[in-house]
Amino acid sequence: MKEVYLNSLDIPSISRFAVGFDRMFNDLSRTAGTLNGTNYPPYNIIKSAENTYTIEIAVAGFEESEMDVEVKEGELIVKGEKQSKEETEVEYLHQGIANRNFVRTFALAENVEVQGASVKNGVLAITVEHIVPESAKPKKIAITFQK
Hints:
Layout: H1 11-15, H2 22-33, E1 43-47, E2 52-58, E3 67-72, E4 75-80, E5 102-107, E6 112-120, E7 123-130
Antiparallel strand pairs: 1-2, 2-7, 3-4, 4-5, 6-7
């Protein structure tokens, strides 16, 4: 039997055969677009509870005024912009902590809301929660018996 490997997902060709999945394909395309080749800054995604997650991002050396967190069109966007080196008067003998700007984007699923963000010990922690709407929760249906 010949094995077939799928190296890329051709969403337009799949969508010709899948009716009503437009939104899912759009979400997959958006998610694929957020994948960038850099791994800076490093981050963790932790499942803290049933529907709660924490995204931890290493932001050592960044000050409060140099960071920005926003939610826009279903994406969580974290930015860090360091002052230019001309503005600082520090002479480094060795610089092992990266002082470069970054933009880290995370695609958020439907009904995921950002609850807050805080920095402790050089780690930015962003808490997000998947809020299940009442319409998606299981419902008990009353059964009526007729005589």
